[in-house]
Backbone:
């Protein structure tokens, strides 16, 4: 039984309408440059804030429903109906979606406000804010869609906005290339997604293609089909959520403005893949192997991201690899059917990673677009608010109790042990140590030690419109973990119960204790190593051997380039230069040549002299008469 | 509503075109006549769309007069779900062309009017011979448009398109004659009416050869790989309006011909080679996509892009299920609006900057913001972003293809990737980056031009978000057709199985 | 009796053909064509006599009328040709050469 809610549609429409209004305003004023950036920003902030308020309303509404039947929906219209295929365009919210919507609109609102300060004076801010609003609308469609195809509308919509915002500073062709890369890599994943949906439709979709219908019939899937569909959908997730082997676009995506990196490429869009797996939990429950593969891909991505993160020098790229790594954790959670643990990490990660990115943005603007950590240093005194808030974010990311990251990460690791995957657990602990190291490497190098920036004396703290969101997010990073305290620490796993995604199992006290101890140890070791290396003064290291290989990101980009990009471009150029003119056009040219040769041969007969034609005529008539004669007489 | 609606829609532009060609009108008055007729036609076709009742089945607005009674050839016109959307597109899209391009001569507008009449004739024809007549006739104005008003290599392009099309059409003519003769032999009377021919039961080698005659003719028009080589030359050399006509409507008439004649008349022979044809279409899709990636000329790139997307339509044609057929019908119009619009916008770029060389552009986004927004939407429409019309079409085709054959389905899906590679490259190269000297000569759209293009943009989005009203009109016809085809192939399969039993 | 007339007719016709083929002057070619026509006419008359029917006469008269018309046209063409090239040699007129 589903309950109607009229809040869903306005929630989606508000940011979309904002995007439309901003777009029109921008086009109307682009010639005169009549409208200041912050005016656009203020208009843009309305949509997300109102949506957030509606999301709170939704929370109240859904808590008013009985515990086992918490689904709100708003069916809009039948999208299309062809043969057995009937697809509805509707919106739907269960506790999972409500949680996503809450933090998406909350973080989104804060980042819109922050952007008002960050984009000050930018001549194209109108376009920026229009894209940002459009993104939020698409993200809400993704989360609230009543069926996989509606989700796909949002899925590709956020990809489009991501592309537009990565290419935002498009005077630099490298940024345009980064945008293209993001879109194309995402599309590769989307192909898997679409094929998965097509297979799912032919298997169980002919009685309806909403989640509710699919959930009912999911047990009918054969194991092979469940595995295939599950993996195909996961290919889509690897694109969107930057997992192996499609993670390559995310570091390049840092070319976009920093608020975009915080909102889209850390807190919300990239977690869509995790959300998708949790959303399709009914499908993944039919296929344990699919989940295990997801978990393995996740943990390997986590490891790879952490390795790369340890050796980067661009502040945003460190955070980008950290995001890839943390997303890996989330997939371990949802892959091992610990859906609430995975989603819990999505939730806490949104706070502290957005915080870290916004803090990085504050540093970058303060230093006039310097992103190299080896050109920073000693900024603690100049940027006190940024420092404190970023430190909180770093502690949360490193997994220091009682901050948010500690609880959510440990819950995933416990799940790994509980489901019998000790290797994944071990790798997870290792990655936790590496995370602590690279996070504090960043903090120590940027904020401690001696200043390395030439304009150090002129550096001032960012505007209040930027620091207040930082403080709010810092509070979130401290508190977000408490909503799902495990019993061992005196809590009741409120969030897990509320989400109700998996059957509840008894707590594993021993495993939890073991995990907590192990992760605290590696966390301390990681921070300790960072402290030893970079305090009191950090010296820019010269990397050799493996470190250098890791700094060059294992040359994966170059490998993909020479394996896929260059061959395709080469094939395209070859078709233009050789294949089209010579080979495919060959038959045509051959026919033309044949006709020409034939015409030359025949034209020899055409002497042009009247009497020659007369001879032909006489001979012809003669032969014809002879033939007629033979026919009649002979 | 004017009566008879279809004859009016055919002969109004035809006669107006002849009048424009014969009378000594000036350039502007010729354009005004063209625009007036185009607007009238748009009104007629939208009205027709509204009046069309999909449930009753068969041809609506049927007209029938005997032409050659002895051979059963008649002037038969009708519209059903298969032809409705294409007819509306052919009727309603032309005002944009007259509004955007104002600098051409009288003959150009005359040809444009005539080509519209002949195309509508081919779409409405419910008689094979009448269809053939219009199908051939519509090449003529295109011949003159490219030959007289085209680019520097127009003569070669004209020759190529003519030779290709005529060669294909002659094969089709032979097949037409065969069909007439077979019908006479089976039923004792002559008839070329589509409804009559669809009752034929054809099988055997000769039928397969006749089928190939049709398929080749339509494959040239669509064009399907490897019969596409006339396309880049013709699309590139043709003036913008002719390119628009070729890619937006005429290519679809080839696909429509397959649905109208090949599927109903040859279900059984087609079943044997449909896998091969679908595979060829997929290969062509990928090939043209990769070829587009290598182009340096904007119109050539779009030409290959158009061919690549027609490859997807080709896949859908041969999958023989209701999702794929509906997808094809929908995608025809989606492609017409999005890729057609891209050609028009590229034509504007060429007209204003005198350059088609992609490398010579950069920063057009800042130079012409409104123009670039429209270009972006058309581009997203062409790559099938959800929320645009092409997504519905492509998704339905992919779903149908997955059912037909999983490998074909996967390969068809790769169009999603290939399309974005060259399109994003084009967009990034032309609209982003530092502004080049060529780009500074670009002028943004005037308010009137924007209002001209806006309906197409709105259509792309509306057809993506609210496809219901459109699909409801065409789905019953697609359903009937696919049921008919699968019944025949099932019957053939049963016969084969029986034979197999007998042998065993 | 009929044989003689036919022999004469064929001889006239062949002479005409020979003339058309061998001679280069346009006028002579033209006259040779007249010769062929008359050869054919003689044949018609002879057969008409043989079958005692008027059909042959009718045809002969028709041929004469056509020949007269043709002569008028041909002479005009010849004058034009002369104006154009200044010669009446058939070898000069080979525009149809392939």
Residues:
């Amino acid at each position: 039984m589903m309950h109607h809610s009229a809040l869903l549609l306005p929630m989606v429409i508000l940011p979309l309408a904002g995007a439309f209004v901003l777009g029109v305003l921008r086009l109307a004023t682009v010639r005169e440059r009549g409208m200041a950036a912050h005016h656009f920003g203020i208009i843009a902030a309305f949509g997300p804030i109102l949506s957030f308020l509606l999301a709170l309303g939704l929370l109240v509404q859904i808590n008013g429903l009985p515990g086992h039947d918490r689904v709100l929906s708003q069916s809009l219209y039948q999208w299309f109906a062809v043969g057995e295929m009937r697809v509805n365009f509707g919106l739907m919210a269960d506790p999972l979606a409500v949680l996503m919507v809450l933090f998406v609109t909350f973080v989104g609102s804060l980042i819109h406000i922050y952007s008002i300060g960050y984009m000050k004076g930018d001549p194209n801010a109108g376009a920026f804010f229009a894209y940002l609003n459009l993104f939020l609308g698409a993200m809400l469609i993704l989360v609230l869609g009543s069926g996989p195809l509606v989700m796909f509308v949002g899925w590709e919509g956020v990809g489009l906005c991501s592309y537009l915002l990565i290419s935002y500073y498009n005077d630099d062709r490298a940024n345009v290339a980064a945008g293209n890369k993001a879109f194309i890599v995402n599309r590769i994943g989307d192909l898997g997604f679409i094929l998965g949906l097509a297979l799912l439709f032919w298997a169980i979709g002919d009685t309806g293609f909403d989640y509710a219908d699919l959930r009912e019939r999911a047990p009918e899937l054969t194991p092979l089909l469940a595995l295939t569909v599950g993996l195909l959908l996961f290919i889509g997730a690897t694109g969107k959520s930057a997992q192996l082997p499609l993670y390559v676009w995310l570091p390049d995506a840092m070319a976009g403005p920093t608020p975009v990196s915080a909102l889209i490429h850390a807190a919300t869009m990239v977690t869509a893949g995790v959300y998708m797996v949790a959303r399709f939990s009914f499908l993944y429950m039919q296929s344990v192997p699919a989940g295990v593969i997801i978990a393995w891909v996740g943990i390997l991505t986590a490891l790879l991201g952490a390795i790369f993160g340890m050796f980067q020098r661009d502040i945003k790229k460190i955070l980008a690899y950290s995001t890839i790594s943390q997303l890996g954790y989330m997939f371990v959670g949802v892959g091992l059917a610990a859906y609430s643990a995975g989603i819990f990490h999505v939730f806490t990660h949104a706070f502290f990673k957005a915080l870290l990115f916004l803090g990085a943005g504050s540093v970058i603007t303060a230093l006039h677009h310097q992103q190299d950590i080896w050109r920073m240093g000693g900024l603690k005194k100049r940027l006190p608010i940024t420092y404190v808030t970023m430190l909180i974010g770093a502690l949360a990311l490193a997994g220091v109790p009682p901050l948010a990251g500690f609880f959510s990460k440990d819950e995933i690791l416990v799940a790994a042990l509980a489901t019998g995957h000790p290797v994944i657990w071990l790798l997870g602990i290792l990655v936790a140590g590496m995370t602590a190291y690279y996070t504090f490497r960043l903090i120590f190098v940027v904020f401690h030690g001696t200043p390395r920036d030439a304009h150090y004396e002129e550096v001032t703290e960012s505007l209040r419109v930027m620091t207040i969101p930082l403080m709010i997010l810092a509070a979130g990073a401290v508190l977000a973990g408490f909503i799902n305290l495990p019993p061992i620490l005196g809590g009741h796993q409120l969030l897990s119960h509320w989400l109700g995604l998996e059957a509840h199992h008894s707590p594993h006290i021993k495993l939890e204790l073991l995990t907590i101890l192990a992760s605290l140890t590696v966390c301390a070791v990681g921070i300790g190593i960072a402290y030893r290396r970079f305090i009191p003064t950090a010296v820019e290291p010269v990397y050799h051997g493996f470190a250098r290989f890791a700094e060059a990101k294992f040359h994966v980009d170059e490998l993909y380039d020479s394996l896929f990009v260059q061959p395709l471009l080469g094939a395209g150029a070859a078709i233009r230069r050789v294949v089209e003119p010579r080979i495919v056009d060959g038959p045509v040219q051959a026919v033309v040549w044949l006709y020409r040769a034939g015409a030359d041969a025949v034209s020899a007969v055409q002497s042009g002299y009247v009497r020659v034609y007369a001879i032909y005529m006489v001979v012809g008539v003669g032969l014809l008469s002879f033939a007629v004669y033979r026919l009649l007489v002979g | 509503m004017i009566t008879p609606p279809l004859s009016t829609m055919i002969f109004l532009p035809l006669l107006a075109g002849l009048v424009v060609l014969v009378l000594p009108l000036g350039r502007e008055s010729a354009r005004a006549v063209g625009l007036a007729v185009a607007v009238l036609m748009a009104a007629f076709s939208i009205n027709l769309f509204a009046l069309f009742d999909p449930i009753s089945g068969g041809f609506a607005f049927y007209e029938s007069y005997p032409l050659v009674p002895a051979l059963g050839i008649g002037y038969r016109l009708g519209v059903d779900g298969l032809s409705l959307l294409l007819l509306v597109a052919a009727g309603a899209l032309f005002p944009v062309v007259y509004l955007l391009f104002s600098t051409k001569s009288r003959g150009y507008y005359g040809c444009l009017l005539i080509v519209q009449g002949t195309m509508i004739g081919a779409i409405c024809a419910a008689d094979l011979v009448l269809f053939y007549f219009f199908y051939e006739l519509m090449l003529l104005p295109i011949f003159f448009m490219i030959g007289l008003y085209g680019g520097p290599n127009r003569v070669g392009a004209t020759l190529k398109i003519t030779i290709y099309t005529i060669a294909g059409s002659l094969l089709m003519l032979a097949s037409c004659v065969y069909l007439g003769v077979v019908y006479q032999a089976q039923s004792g009377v002559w008839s070329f009416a589509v409804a009559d021919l669809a009752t034929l039961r054809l099988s055997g080698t000769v039928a397969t050869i006749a089928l190939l005659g049709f398929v080749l003719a339509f494959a040239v028009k669509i064009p399907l790989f490897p019969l596409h080589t006339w396309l880049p030359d013709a699309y590139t050399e043709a003036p913008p309006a002719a390119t628009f006509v070729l890619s937006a409507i005429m290519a679809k008439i080839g696909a429509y011909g397959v649905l109208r004649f090949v599927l109903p008349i040859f279900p059984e022979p087609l079943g044997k080679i449909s896998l091969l044809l679908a595979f060829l279409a997929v290969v062509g899709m990928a090939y043209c996509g990769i070829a587009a990636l290598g182009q340096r000329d904007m119109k050539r790139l779009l030409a290959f892009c158009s061919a690549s997307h027609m490859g997807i339509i080709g896949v859908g044609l041969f999958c023989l299920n209701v999702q794929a057929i509906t997808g094809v019908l929908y995608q025809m119009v989606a492609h017409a609006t999005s890729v057609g619009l891209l050609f028009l916008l590229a034509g504007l770029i060429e007209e204003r900057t005198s350059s088609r060389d992609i490398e010579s552009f950069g920063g057009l986004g800042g130079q012409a913001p409104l123009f670039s927004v429209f270009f972006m939407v058309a581009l997203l429409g062409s790559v099938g972003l959800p929320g645009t019309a092409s997504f519905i079409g492509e998704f339905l085709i992919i779903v149908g293809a997955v059912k037909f054959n999983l490998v074909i389905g996967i390969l068809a899906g790769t169009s999603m990737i290939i399309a974005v590679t060259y399109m994003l490259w084009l967009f990034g190269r032309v609209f982003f980056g530092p502004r080049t000297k060529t780009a500074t000569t670009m002028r943004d759209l005037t308010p009137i031009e924007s209002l001209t293009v806006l309906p197409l943009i709105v259509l792309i989005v509306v057809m993506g978000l609210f496809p219901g009203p459109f699909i409801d009109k065409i789905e019953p016809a697609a359903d009937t057709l696919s049921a008919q085809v699968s019944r025949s192939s099932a019957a053939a399969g049963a016969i084969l199985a029986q034979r197999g039993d007998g042998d065993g | 009796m009929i044989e003689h007339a036919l022999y004469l007719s064929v001889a006239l016709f062949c002479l005409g053909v020979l003339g058309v083929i061998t001679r280069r002057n346009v006028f002579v070619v033209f006259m040779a064509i007249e010769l062929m026509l008359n050869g054919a006419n003689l044949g018609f008359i002879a057969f008409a006599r043989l079958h005692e029917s008027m059909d042959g006469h009718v045809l002969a008269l028709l041929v004469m009328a056509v020949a007269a018309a043709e002569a008028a046209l041909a002479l005009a063409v010849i004058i034009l040709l002369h104006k154009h090239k200044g010669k009446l040699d058939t070898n000069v007129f080979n525009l149809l050469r392939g």
Q: What stands out?
A: Residues 173-204 of chain A form the longest helix (32 residues). Chain A has a mean pLDDT of 88. Residues 147-205+213-551 of chain A form one domain.
